[in-house]
C-alpha cells in the first residue's frame, strides 16, 4: 500500500494586467423586461397590480357615489320633492355635481397612474 501524499500547497494566481476590463455594471433590468425573464415578470406583475388597485379604487368611488344618489333619493323622501326654480333636486345634482366630480376623479386617476408609472421607471432605471 502506498502512503497518501500531501496535496501541493495552494497558489494564488493573479494577473499582471490591472487594467483588464471587468464586468462592473450589473445586468440592466430593462433587459429582463425585454426578455420576459422571471425577474421581469415579477416587476411587470407589480406594475399591473398597482394599476389594477388604482382602477378598482376609482371604480369603487364612482359606484358608491353614483349608486348612492338613487339610494339617497329613495331613502330620504324630502329630497324627491325638493325643487329649486322649478327644477327637481335630482336633476340639479346630476347636472351640476356629477360631471365636475367625474372630471376631478378622472384627473386624479391620470395623475396617480402617471405617478405609479414614474415610480416603476425610476425603479427600473435604478438597477
Characterization of the model:
The protein is mainly alpha-helical. 69% of the residues lie in helices and 3% in strands. The chain has four helices and two strands. The longest helix has 38 residues, at 38-75. The radius of gyration is 32 Å and the shape is rod-shaped.
Uncertain parts: none
Average pLDDT over all residues: 83
User: Largest sheet at a glance?
Assistant: 2 strands, antiparallel
The SSE string, one letter per element, is HHHEEH
Query: End-to-end span in angstroms?
Result: 59 Å
Would you kindly provide a brief summary of this structure?
The chain is mainly alpha-helical and 127 residues long. Helices cover 69% and strands 3% of the residues.
Using brief descriptors, characterize the structure shown.
mainly alpha; 2 strands; rod-shaped; 4 helices; two-stranded antiparallel ribbon
Topology:
Blueprint: H1 29-35, H2 38-75, H3 77-81, E1 83-84, E2 87-88, H4 89-126
Antiparallel strand pairs: 1-2
Helix pairs in contact: 1-2, 2-4
